[in-house]
Amino acid sequence: MDMSVHPSPPSPGTGQRARWADLARDAAEANAFYAPDMLGAALDHLAGGGAVRLVEAYAGETLIGLMPVSIAGHHGRLPIACATNWMHHHAFFGAPMLRRGHEQAAWAAMLAQLDAASWAPHFLHLTGLDAAGANAAALEAVCATQGRARHEIHRYDRALLRSDLSADDYWESHVRAKKRKEIRRLQKRLADLGAVADRKLAARDELSGWCGEFLALERSGWKGREGTALACNPADAAFFRAACAAAFDAGRLHFLRLDLDGRAIAMLVNFRHQGGAFSFKIAFDEDLGRFSPGVLIELANLRHVQGDDGIGWMDSCAAPDHPMIDSLWAERRSIVQYRVALKGAGLTRLKRHAAMTLADGVDRLARLMKGQA
């Protein structure tokens, strides 16, 4: 097989994005954040000039691997620079896009490119991977074959929805009776205020309005007060609108709202990829917090997802031990970080080996101090 690797500019053109779309359709592991709609929007609005490099692997003319890479100035508390798969502050999964059937070849090619890159310091820090996913399995196999060090440095579980049950059966089986009773009470109290309805975005001409309502709703709450809402930063808001538009056109946007007398009181944005989906952002009217509108729209989301044959699972993308979603979804996904050695020649090889050894030693010392060794 004719194997080659190609560095790519951070502002890809139409032809390159078409190759990404072809790769995304045949990806071994779903990742909506690296699908061309979301990744393209992120590169256009969040990449910050030349801060992101695209590592692509080809077999002949066929794109078999894609990983956006940035340089981190620190590795944890260590002042050691490293290469890392780029996960901007609105990306919650970092598995590179690998073509099905070419997983190990793609990893071998991308690692070879990083080995040879003068701009790639010390080692590769991979974040946001599924411990049981195709990326982790292929990476482990390649590193074992090449005698390349690969160490897991962090792991946590987050909520996942994956069940063949209907929404009603899932709700009855996995949510405590006391909580179900309380939510039914809140639904009745909210209905006393007016007409309550939930719906999913279906019309392209409504998209801009829905995006505007979401941005305003999110900014009206605690995220707005802390300056972390999307609308607080023009680049973040532009990314959100662009990603939603591109995903809608690609059939990957899953946008829900809960209305009270026609006014949105909660909204939820999910992005689909292949047979799964990733929950992206939620916003709700905090003035109606006593009715738990965030929980109510998640209940609506459960009905929509379990009633959609095209969605087999949904990743919550939530923090570990999230008090709300963990009480609603019973399944879990293990998210891991790896530190992977980079090779090289001469002084570069020595520097990379020394940095990897130092980082490994600090980890061992930390485990000893915690009594985990």
TrEMBL record:
Transmembrane region(s): none
Residues spanning the signal sequence: none
Protein name, per record: CelD/BcsL family acetyltransferase involved in cellulose biosynthesis
Pfam families assigned: Acetyltransf_6
Domain named BioF2-like acetyltransferase: residues: 177-317
InterPro entries: Acyl_CoA_acyltransferase, BioF2-like_GNAT_dom
Domain of life: Bacteria
Ranges in coiled-coil conformation: none
UniProt entry keywords in alphabetical sequence: Transferase
Gene Ontology molecular function, alphabetical: transferase activity
